[in-house]
Amino acid sequence: EVVLTQSPATLSLSPGERATLSCRASQSVGNYLAWYQQKPGQAPRLLIYDASNRATDIPARFSGSGSGTDFTLTISSLEPEDFAIYYCQQRSDWPPYTFGQGTKLEIK
Amino acid sequence: EVQLVESGGALVQPGGSLRLSCAASGFSINYYWMSWVRQAPGKGLEWVANIQPGGSGTFYVDSVKGRFTVSRDDAKNSLYLQMNSLRAEDTAVYYCSRETTGEGFGFWGQGTLVTVSS
């Protein structure tokens, strides 16, 4: 099973700042990595697929990079609505699909 | 508009059974892999099971194999999860999700809460 480790667990930033979230895989997943955003009481929302492709209607301030075992989600300039929990997920080696444990992005 | 609406969540005793349903609208599930993903209270996401178009292939996370069964009724445009021998650790919000080929879990329902407790 592919284990995904996200860091940091919590990231405290202010609106307008740049956010950089990390996801590391226990083995290569190629570029088969996605990122999701989840707000309290809501279902997750797909942001990025295949490491660097924005999903439909996702703003350009969200970008993804990486391949193999190391991946990054960058939010170029934080908007108030971006404070949420972010999860990475791999679809390279399944079953099972696996998720990271999440990074909570909170307002500083 | 694509919509997924889960139902069937409840409080159930350990060892009990429950059947979750997911009604899809705005698209036909015929063509899609469909998944169940769960989230224990205050915890992260865990993929549970999926089923391929046509229903001939089903896959599960190890912790539910032999206890849970995923199925689909394309005529009713619905997905199901039969859960038997429930344990406390199955307590979670269960989400139905449509897998978008080549992308990931592109659409999600709002979730239904399953609580396993005596």
Query: How much helix, percentage-wise, in residues of chain A?
Result: under 10%
Shape of chain A: globular
Number of helices of chain B: 0
Give the chain pair forming the largest contact, with residue counts. Answer: A-B, 24 and 22 residues
Low-pLDDT residue spans of chain A: none
Largest sheet of chain A: 7 strands, mixed
Biggest sheet of chain B, in brief?
Answer: 7 strands, mixed
From N to C, what is the helix and strand string of chain B? Answer: EEEEEEEEEEE
Mean pLDDT over the full residue set of chain B: 96
C-alpha termini separation of chain B? 40 Å
Q: Helicity range of the residues of chain B?
A: under 10%
**Beta-strand level of the residues of chain B, as a percent range?**
over 45%
- This entry's quaternary arrangement is heterodimer
Quick tags:
heterodimer, A: 108 residues, mainly beta, 11 strands, globular, B: 118 residues, 7-stranded mixed beta sheet, 0% helix
Give the SSE layout.
The complex is a heterodimer of chains A (108) and B (118).
Chain A: E1 4-7, E2 10-13, E3 19-25, E4 33-38, E5 45-49, E6 53-54, E7 62-67, E8 70-75, E9 85-90, E10 98-99, E11 103-107
Parallel strand pairs in A: 2-11
Antiparallel strand pairs in A: 1-3, 3-8, 4-5, 4-9, 5-6, 7-8, 9-10, 9-11
Chain B: E1 3-7, E2 11-12, E3 18-25, E4 34-39, E5 45-51, E6 58-60, E7 68-73, E8 78-83, E9 92-100, E10 104-108, E11 112-116
Parallel strand pairs in B: 2-11
Antiparallel strand pairs in B: 1-3, 3-8, 4-5, 4-9, 5-6, 7-8, 9-10, 9-11
